[in-house]
Amino acid sequence: MKVKITPRKVPFTGEFEVPPDKSITHRAYILASIAEGPSLIENPLRAKDCNSTMECLTRCGVEFHIDGNRVSVRGNLREPDDILDAGNSGTTARLLCGLLSSYPFFSVITGDESLRKRPMARVIKPLRMMQAEIIGRNEDRFLPVAIKGREELVGIEYKLDVASAQVKSAILLAGLRASGKTVVIEPAKSRDHTENMLKALGAKIEIEENRISVERSKIRGFHLRVPGDPSSASFLIAIALLIPGSHITIKNVLLNPTRIGFLEKLREMGCNINWEVTEYRLNEPVGVIEASYSEEIKAVKVNKEEIPSMIDEIPILSLIATRAHGITEIRGAEELRVKESDRLKSIREELSRIGAKIEELPDGLLIEGPAEIEGGNTHSHRDHRIAMTLAVGGLISRRGVEIEEAEWVDISFPGFFQVIS
Q: pLDDT by residue for the chain (421 residues), tens digit each?
């Protein structure tokens, strides 16, 4: 689907709620599938990635009952009678590897063309150390992955090479049914939703800075209203910051400290941005974000330690940087090369096409500003965050932006084009 985004001539104003958080929805489905007793999940993200998790778990015997915006879940994991298709979702594939390795049945996980190119060895290696029987294509590098689960895995202490919430979560899920203690040590703090939710649900888990340990334990059923996704909110925030006269409020949004690096970096850039935590749900902080037009934005440096807290927002941060005075330097972001697309390459190629002054580095980007976004023809690279970044680019451009394969926004933000129109 090709979409043409024309320049916006009026301020972007109002109160919004963004789509439910993708990471929380994935984990809520997975944890509900192994909880003792039923669970109720309100306001889950009903988009392709999270639907892939639900469909895979359904094939494994988990019962989902959908009633409007409420999903009731009752778990009873069993061997699936067919291959599990994770679609485009790396979270689905990697977390299910950890979960299914600890159950005594056979399963195979695959994905779409894009997902079958994303690295799996980083998950397979630690799970095999826990004595899981698991193999992947091309010497364990890629999907499909075949798993012959074990009733009782063996706990390990494992230091991650790269800060990865998906790998960490896979190991912790396997550790719930392993003998002894399972310990994960991170080089930098990554998203901590899995450990927050496990702790709230009664798992035997200890969290000490970048060291997380879990012991064999059961979790209870739960009731959760999923908050809004801060990564989805970032695109609306960008519009408000870049369109003169704009002011928006985003309510019911997740404000986990491991997810607000983007907001903190915007504040460092001199943007008009504020946020406040108003409540907690399963140990997750939820609140309100306000953003308004920011005429004077300054360039900043993003270092390797900061990347995990804004990994999904680098594309839209790069666009905002085109309006900043000076050269914004993003380093230590090589993990973006193995996302839905090679995001460093995609950002450089597509933003350059519409007028940005941007240089691609092996591990990051240099963006010179302020630059005028002219507009032009672009491609999403079948990556939802690239598509939405280009759409925002169209709103601030001189002559509009056309986006090929724009339908990929539905991965995380169904209805996005209607919201920004």
A: 999 999 999 999 999 999 999 999 999 999 999 999 999 999 999 999 999 999 999 999 999 999 999 999 999 999 999 999 999 999 999 999 999 999 999 999 999 999 999 999 999 999 999 999 999 999 999 999 999 999 889 999 999 999 999 999 999 999 999 999 999 999 999 999 999 999 999 999 999 989 999 999 999 999 999 999 999 999 999 999 999 999 999 999 999 999 999 999 999 999 999 999 999 999 999 999 999 999 999 999 999 999 999 999 999 999 999 999 999 999 999 999 988 889 999 999 999 999 999 999 999 999 999 999 999 999 999 999 999 999 999 999 999 999 999 999 998 999 999 999 9
Pick the catalytic residue from 21, 229, 312, 383. 312
Backbone φ and ψ for 218, nearest 5 degrees, come out as -110, 155
Cβ(152)–Cβ(175) under 8 Å? no
For residue 312, indicate whether it is catalytic: yes
Strand ranges (DSSP E) for 93-156? 106-110, 133-136, 142-148, 153-154
Peptide bond into 308 cis (omega under 30): no
Those residues with Cβ within 8 angstroms of residue 31's Cβ, 6 or more apart along the chain or in another chain: 39, 197, 198, 201, 219, 222
Tokens of 294: 């920011």
Residue 165's alpha-carbon distances to 136, 173, 179, 193, 279, in angstroms, are: 20, 12, 22, 8, 23
How big, in percent rounded to 5, are the helix, strand and coil portions of the chain?
35, 30, 35
pTM above the 0.85 mark? yes
